[in-house]
Each structure stands twice: as C-alpha cells, then as structure tokens.
Write a structure and sequence with these properties.
Layout: H1 7-27, H2 37-65, H3 68-74, H4 79-95, H5 97-101, H6 122-153, H7 155-163, H8 168-188, E1 194-198, E2 219-223
Antiparallel strand pairs: 1-2
Length: 226
C-alpha cells in the first residue's frame, strides 16, 4: 500500500489489508456475542466495500486535481489516511453486532462471574467497540511514520540505502514489521481487554445489585475484545 502509485494497485492491496483486518476483528471480538454467518458475510462486505470506497475516493480526487506525475507521487500518501479511515470503519462494522446484542457483565476483573445470567449490556458493548475502533486508528501512526522517519533521519541508514538502492524496499518492509510489532501491543494496552464500567453508566437492571458480602456493586467488568 505504501509504495502503490496507481489506483488498481492501491485498491488491490487495500482489499488484501482490509480482508485480513476483518478476520482479525472477527476473531478478537467478545466471543459471547453471537454472530451468524449471514451477519458475518454482510459485515465483511460492508467493511471491505467501505474501505475500498475510501481509498478509491481519495485516489480519484488526487488524479482529477493534479497532473499524472504529481498524482503518482501523491498516491503514495493516500495509504495513511485511507488506512486510518478504512481500519476504523472495518472494525466498527465487523464488531457492531455486539452493540445490537450487548455483552455480559462480570463481577470481577480476573476470573469474574457473569452478574446476571442471560442478560447483556449494550452500554458496555458500545464502550468496548468504540475503544477498539480508536486503537485501530492509533495503530496506523507508528506503522506509517516511524519507518520513513528513521530511514530519512538516521545518517547510517541514509548512507546504506544510497550505496545499496535495491535494499530500500526490503529495509522499509522490515521496519514496517518492527513498527507494527511495537505499535500493536502499545496501542492495544491503552484500553485493557478486561475493562471496567461504573454502575451509573449501565442499564437499570444492573443497579442495586450486591456482592457476596452484601456490599453494593459500584462497578462491573467486561471483555471488550482486542
């Protein structure tokens, strides 16, 4: 995506990237939220379709406003904004069924039990989905900005690439992988997988509950997924 200088190449690699993202979002959701094959198929089509629409829209805008040579250079910068928007949309669409069904609340952060069997919280599901969408957007920053900053800012790398032009793409690829490896746990840790929510922020059916010692429960926990 970073080196794509034509619309077909940009769309193809966006499709590959967003298809992989859809799988990641599906397998890292709150698994207690039921998701039929039909809903999954619709979510995948909507997520990838909207992602490609974002990339195609930006590419078309650039090609209409600039001459071919300038457009070819600018297309390389489409990857970041299109990836931020597409990844966020992808995550929201694939995970949005959780908002419809809700997710169960737990009474403890580690090894907690479901508070009300058979009941779910839409409020907690919204917090979980929205925070996960935010991590998908934040993750793009180190992946797109760290490698070029290092390659352009470190004299030793600049000299190496100047003497070995053929190593520019392999080196950039390696640095993107490293940046992703560092950025993924960092951005995921901003919002813990087991999150908490105050009793005042959930549905009324969860209020007034007491724990085993008879004290009122003031906060609940839930698995927001990753």
């Amino acid at each position: 995506m970073v080196v794509s200088s034509s619309t077909p190449a940009l769309l193809f690699w966006n499709w590959v990237n967003q298809s992989q993202n859809a799988l990641v979002n599906y397998f890292n959701r709150n698994a207690s939220s039921t998701l039929s094959n039909e809903t999954l198929a619709k979510s995948y089509a909507a997520a990838v379709g909207s992602s490609l629409a974002v990339a195609f829209g930006l590419a078309t805008l650039i090609q209409k406003r600039y001459d071919p040579a300038t457009a070819s250079r600018l297309l390389r910068f489409v990857a970041f904004p299109s990836s931020v928007m597409a990844s966020s949309l992808n995550c929201y669409i694939v995970r949005s069924p959780e908002i419809e069904t809700g997710i169960p609340l737990l009474d403890g952060e580690l090894g907690g039990n479901v508070v009300l069997e058979g009941e779910t919280s839409v409020a907690a599901a919204k917090v979980g989905v929205y925070s996960t969408v935010a991590t998908r957007a934040l993750l793009q920053a180190p992946v797109y900005f760290l490698p070029p900053a290092l390659m352009a800012g470190l004299p030793v790398l600049k000299r190496y690439i100047a003497g070995n032009p053929g190593m520019a793409v392999p080196l950039a690829t390696y640095m993107i992988i490293v940046a992703f490896g560092l950025g993924l746990p960092g951005t995921t840790a901003i919002f813990p997988q087991i999150s908490e929510i105050g009793v005042e922020d959930v549905e009324g059916k969860y209020r007034g509950l007491k724990n085993d010692s008879g004290a009122p429960i003031t906060k609940f926990y839930f698995n927001k997924g990753l």
